[in-house]
Design goal:
heterodimer, A: 110 residues, 6-stranded mixed beta sheet, 5-stranded antiparallel beta sheet, 0% helix, globular, B: 111 residues, mainly beta, 4-stranded antiparallel beta sheet
Chain lengths: 110, 111
């Protein structure tokens, strides 16, 4: 199955700074690259995704970039706010199985 | 919100007892998944289903079984619960290489 690695496992930033989380995957056939946000006591929810025919996608303060040659994609959060504090997961999808990165706990300090 | 419901939301059970967790969806999605979430381990796939009566193992399937007799229901059974199965369990649904929708989770404690 797909091997997905996510870094860093924890990230602490000052409010207003940027945060970047990186995910590497193993299956070159992957063509869908989503990021999920999990708030305390809830299930993960999709925040942004990208398909393999696009190199970058933005939605307000968040963006995802994809490098298919190097097999990695990254989540970028600009102007971080305290409500961005959560656990973030990337997903790999080879065939029918959905495999998730180990998660990144982002802490935004006011 | 996607129509996906997990029950129960919380359960405390004794070692050696059988436990069944239920995932119910109203989205008619083909794929259903069971994950466990433990500190330091992220989301680990237990079992998944790609259709009625079609299931397959994930990376941490030992001690768990699943059944899917209807499109909308995916059951996870711990035949004889152990303390190592204390965890938060999440069900997810998807339609192939598209967004996955998660339930709210079931917190299971085995004492």
């Amino acid at each position: 199955g797909e091997n997905v690695e996510q870094h860093p496992s924890t990230l602490s930033v000052q409010e207003g700074d940027s945060a970047v989380i990186k995910c590497t995957y193993s299956d070159s056939a992957s063509n869908y690259f989503p990021w999920y946000k999990q708030e305390l006591g809830k299930g993960p929810q999709l925040i942004i995704d990208i398909r393999s025919n696009v190199g970058e996608k933005k939605d307000q303060r968040i963006a995802v970039t994809l490098n298919k040659t190097a097999k990695h994609f990254s989540l970028h959060i600009t102007e971080t706010q305290p409500e961005d504090s959560a656990v973030y997961f990337c997903e790999g999808n080879a065939g029918n199985m959905l495999t998730f990165g180990g998660g990144t706990r982002l802490m935004v300090k006011p | 919100d996607a129509g996906i419901t997990q029950s129960p939301r919380h359960k405390v059970t004794e070692t050696g007892t059988p436990v069944t967790l239920r995932c119910h969806q109203t989205e008619n999605h083909r794929y259903m998944y069971w994950y466990r979430q433990d500190p330091g381990h992220g989301l680990r796939l237990i079992h998944y289903s790609y259709g009625v009566k079609d299931t397959d193992k994930g990376e941490v399937s030992d001690g768990y079984s699943v059944s899917r007799s209807k499109t909308e229901d995916f059951l996870l059974t711990l035949e004889s619960a152990t303390s190592s199965q204390t965890s938060v369990y999440f069900c997810a649904i998807s339609e192939g290489s598209l967004e996955a929708f998660f339930g709210q989770g079931t917190r299971l404690t085995v004492v």
